[in-house]
Structure formats: structure tokens, C-alpha cells
Amino acid sequence: MTEQSRHGEVVPRSRHVLDRLWHALGAQLRYPSGVFGSLVGWFMAFANDEPNRLAIDALELQPEDRVLELGFGPGWGLRTISARIPNGRVFGIDQSDLMLQQATAMNQAAIAKGSVVLLKGQFSPLPWIDSTFNKILLVNVAYFFDPDGQDMTEVYRVLRSGGRAVIYVTSRETMIKWPFAGPETHRIYDRNALVDLLEGAGFRLSNINIKDLRLPFGISGLLYQISAIVTR
């Protein structure tokens, strides 16, 4: 059986159904919800294991750091950070109720102790005053930032001068091969596109270091280490 696509071409119904499934997966990666979202959350934890490890190492954590993670997913990164900053605190914000539930379960003891604080909310505006954090982590979340740059501007706003932000994204050359990462759900980046976003937010080009990563399964990634010299 066939049907007409939105571009006027005639395509098999099976392809149309498959496209809808891929789009649904992309939407779940952006905002996990329901039973399928629970599975997606644990898949994210597995898929992000190596990027999380490399990005957290790049933060160069110190025992008394005050750290923010945007888009914490099921909370494995939060747990790792908390263990490395015994005298500090780690804060997280995510837009998904489901991810908040999973991350809370994953970090229950640290939350009870007050060393981990989790919130559900948007990335713009962030619910903290200027210069609240000296370390900020973003792993596989910049795809979902707003096109006007306000989310990244908020990252700049809450980062202290002299602090450090670390961002990991899978590169455009890999993501264009993944049918779930369409423009309706993901904003994808090459080196320059993310640099433009960072500069637009206020970060200086001279303080942005980019490392190309080759990960398992032929995945190409980009790791951005940003030293903040903030002027307000």
C-alpha cells in the first residue's frame, strides 16, 4: 500500500509508519514520558556512559565545587559527580517528570543528605542567580536548546568567572545518519555551529577548547571545554 507524503511523493505505507516511529523516538529523547520513556531513559544512561565519563573528567572537579548538570536524564552523571565532590553540592535540572523520578531514585541517599538537589524545569530562565556555579555539565542536551540562544545565555549567566563548562555533543557527521535525529526534534552541530552558539551567549573564542572524540560503534563526538571569563 502507498500514500502521499507531505512533499507530494508517493511512498510505501510501511516507510511512512517507520518514519513516524523514528520521529516518536526522537521526541522521547527530547522529552521522555510514559512507559516508552522509561526504556528510553535507561537506554540514554547506557549510550551516554562514555561521553559522561569523558565530560566529567574534563570538568576537573574539586572537593568543594558547586556543580550544575542540565538535562541529567536518569541521573548516572549526577551520582558520579557527587561522589567526587565530598564537600560540594551538585544541582540538576531536567524538563521531564520521568527523568526526575529516575534520577531521584538513583541519587536517593545523596538527596537526603543535601549534597544533590534536583529540579524539574525549563533551561530558560534557570532558577538561580548570576554566578551560582563554578562547574556546569551538558552531555547530549544542546540538541534541544532553543534556536534563539537563550538557553546557552542562561548557562553563561549562572557560571562564575573563572569557572568551567563542559559540553558533549555527537557530531553532525554521525547524527545525520540517525533517522530519529530529525530537525523536528534535534538541532545538530558541527564544530563551528556550537562555537557560534557559545560566542553568542557571551563566551570568548579564546577560552573554548574543542576535542574530537572517536567513540565505540563509529560514533564521532565533540567535547567542548570552556573556561569562563565573565563580564556583566
Explain what you see.
The structure is a single chain. By secondary structure, this protein is α/β, with parallel strands linked by helices. The protein has nine helices and nine strands. It has helices spanning 13-30, 34-47, 49-58, 76-84, 97-106, 108-113, 150-158, 172-175, 191-201; strands spanning 2-4, 10-12, 66-70, 89-94, 116-120, 133-139, 159-170, 208-215, 219-227. It has a seven-stranded mixed sheet. β6, α7 (150-158) and β7 form a beta-alpha-beta unit. α3 packs parallel to α4. The longest helix is centred in the N-terminal third of the chain and has 18 residues, at 13-30.
Overview in brief:
The protein is of the alpha/beta class. The chain has helices spanning 13-30, 34-47, 49-58, 76-84, 97-106, 108-113, 150-158, 172-175, 191-201, and strands at 2-4, 10-12, 66-70, 89-94, 116-120, 133-139, 159-170, 208-215, 219-227. Strands 5-4-3-6-7-9-8 form a seven-stranded mixed sheet.
Mean pLDDT: 85
Roughly what fraction of the amino acids lie in strands?
25-35%
User: Rough shape?
Assistant: globular
Structural class: alpha/beta
**Discrete helix count:** 9
Query: Cα-atom Rg, whole angstroms?
Result: 18 Å
Using DSSP, what is the number of strands?
9
> In percent, how helical is the residue content?
25-40%
Oligomer: single chain
**Strand order within the widest beta sheet:** 5-4-3-6-7-9-8
| Model regions low in confidence, pLDDT < 50 over at least 5 residues | 1-7, 14-19, 21-26
For the biggest sheet, the summary is: 7 strands, mixed
The span between the termini is 60 Å
Note the run of SSEs as H and E: EEHHHEHEHHEEHEHHEE
